[in-house]
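This part of the workshop introduces the protein records we will be handling. A record pairs a protein's sequence with a compact description of its fold. Comparing a sequence with its tokens is the quickest way to learn the format. To make this concrete, we reproduce a full record directly below:
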Amino acid sequence: MKWLKLAGIVITLLMMLVAGTTAYLLFGDTRWLAAELARAAREQWQRTLTIDGGIELSLWPELGFRVGKARLSESGGDETFAAIESARLSIAPWPLLDRKIVVTSCAVEGLNLVLIRRRDGTLNIADLLPGKAPDQGRAPRPSWRIDIAGVGLTDARVGWRDQRSDMAVTLTMPTLTTGRIGGDQLAIDDIAGRLDIAHPKLPAKSLALPIGGRLAADFARSSAAGALSAQLDGSGIALNFEVARFAPLSLAFTLDIDRIDLDKYLARDGHDDAGRIDLAALKGLDIRGDIRIGRLRFGQVAASNITLAFDAAAGALELTPRAMSGDTARRDDGKRPARRAGH
């Protein structure tokens, strides 16, 4: 009987709490929630969170959140790191009592995210990555577990800027749906979008590639793997990669290209760098792999069925006959042998 009475008291208290919360949320405002989120972003990451579009809440059958325009600043600054046009989120209520966030649905429109590699080699996302040590002197807080059924993105743009090389890359995705994200696991089975590349050494200054593929990441182990495919002037491109470590980056890959004329995509200052691609911007990164090309032309080099060994630490990629392995690799000076009579 004592247990029954205790259970009745607990149920009554829960009902009163839910009723009170419901009344407050329905007839009050949600500025307090936006303020709490902004405070958490400021205290934990030294970033400014601004929610211009307000927050709408619903309580049945699940906790629902709808956010209008919002932006998150760079750490310690005012420059925009990420922004959205709107987002919708649904959370199962009861797991919250066990410090577990179960997201049953998540949809984001107009995501604009910029990743930057600074001149000192650090990343502007480093403070947000899992596994970052907490600030000294702060008492550790009980951790929350997160389980997300999937995330849907519409009109998303993810940019990459390398301040060392002045390279800029933007991935545009009209739609993207991820698989389940449980704790530290992430899976994206169907990537479809367009990759826009801007670089001072591109003759046209920019390049657009339609791409597709898949990605899987394990943040607890700091590892990832994926595959991407693209088309460039009718030539097929396939990339497979594995990341053994996020920071500092350790990546291995294989890149297969049907055919490519690099003179169309890489401008050179003179003949001194013919047959050589400058990779100085990648120095210090552990990126290695094999590049397999069916047919290649670059400067005075013409080759077919070749394999190039890529090592970012070397600072450059030599495209010379001696550096290649394959069926044919020769210097091309533009001259052709004269035909014999009768042929």
Remarks:
- Helices lie at 2-27, 31-45.
- DSSP finds two helices and 22 strands in the chain.
- Residues 222-335 form one domain.
